[in-house]
Amino acid sequence: MCMKACLNCPPRNLTSLSGAVILQLSAVSTKCFFLRTIDNYERLHPRDRRRNGIVLKFSKVTTTVTAFITFNEGCPFDGGTFEFVFDFQRDYDLIGPKITLRTKMWHPSVDQTDGFVYFNGNYWADNWSIYEFAPRLKSWMCTLDYSRLVEMEIVDQAINHPELFEKTARFWTTKYAGGSEPLDEQYEKSVQYLMAAGFSEEKATRELSLNQWVLKKSVSTELMTAGLKLGLSPSSSIHKLP
User: Fold this and answer.
1) CATH top-level class for 2-143?
2) Main-chain phi, psi angles of 122, to 5 degrees
3) Residues 6+ apart with CB under 8 A from 20
4) b/e sequence 141-157, b meaning 16+ C-beta within 10 Å
5) What distance in Å separates the CA atoms of residue 41 and residue 48, rounded to the nearest whole number?
6) Mean pLDDT over residues 142-152, rounded?
7) Which one of 4, 98, 129, 186 is at 20 to 30 Å from 201 when CA atoms are compared?
8) What is the pLDDT of residue 23?
9) What's the pTM value of the predicted model, to 2 decimals?
10) What is the 3-state secondary structure (H, E, C) of 31-84?
């Protein structure tokens, strides 16, 4: 076991492939994780370092690993590459890492404010490496675990309008993560319309997604202020919606 092997190991710095130094870690078990992960990674041939659609980067000063994970076919996030940050705490291996998503994803278990992923800890097993864990994380996110929910409006869409949820998720995947499908032209036209009314691109995309891509619902409360800045009348603008 890694834990037993490390109990008598003197503290030491670790160097990743890129030459970045990972400083001495405070928890023995967490240090073991980094030893195991980096050793496994450095043994790979360069062509094999993108395994299962995963590319790793190691932090210089913290016990975090950044993983760029590409999702497979048969999932609303098909072809998208998402940036995940795994933060390993002092009580690793007992529990898995805290997971934050830095790439926007339309998912009911991802906090749309800070990207925190409400992951089901039952999917974590002691002594897993990131390479062992990431495929299970991808599978978990594609199946939509309703026991770990945070964005209830997205939950409602996924349950009551599954086709719309999948279409919206694919739009976000293409827009933010380089997904494999072409960007939906009608959805993008609606986003551009709200941007012309004063919305940021991010806010326009989110408001439309939350309101089933019905422009009138998305702008009914905000066009009164944002649209008027451009000299637009709310009623006349709504009549011109695509």
Assistant:
1) alpha beta
2) -65, -15
3) 58, 59, 60
4) bbebeeebebbeebbeb
5) 9
6) 81
7) 98
8) 29
9) 0.72
10) HHHHHHHHHHHHCCCHHHCCECCEEEEECCCCCEEEEEEECCCCCCCCCCEEEE
Which of 45-59, 103-117, 211-225 has maximum average pLDDT? 103-117
Q: What is the mean pLDDT of the chain?
A: 73
What's the rounded Cα separation, in Å, for the pair 225 and 191? 17
Highest-pLDDT range among 34-38, 104-108, 124-128: 104-108
The structure tokens listed for 186 are: 């009608």
- Domain residue extents for the chain: 2-143, 152-239
pLDDT of residue 223: 52
Structural tokens at position 47: 């062509």
Q: What single-letter DSSP state applies at residue 26?
A: S
Which contacts qualify for 13-18: CB closer than 8 Å, 24 or more apart? 14/38, 14/58, 16/41, 16/42, 16/57, 16/58, 17/41, 17/42, 18/57, 18/58
In angstroms, the CA 78 to CA 54 distance is 14
Name the amino acid, one letter, at 160: N
Where b means 16+ CB within 10 Å and e means fewer, 93-125 reads beebbebbbebbbbbbbbebeebebbbeeeebe
Average pLDDT over residues 16-40: 46
